């Protein structure tokens, strides 16, 4: 995160440990799916290359790529609406993620 007292860092290297640390992020609300929460937090914080590594660790840990949010949407549903997130969507699809429409068919 950046702000007036915290300058944005460009080109920062993320270690595997830092990327994996997002697996331990828990939602503040017990009604939020922990797998969806970890995915959305990683998506919001990571560049596409680090997110690709995270998804590999996520799947390796047996987590659910098709977990849904409180509106019944998957992370791929959300990412697919962002025109600058095609690399993220490709990573998710490659790992087996589906949109809600695809999962229902």
UniProtKB/TrEMBL annotation:
InterPro entries associated with the record: Ankyrin_rpt-contain_sf, PA4642-like
Originating organism: Marinobacter algicola DG893
Protein name as it appears in the record: Uncharacterized protein
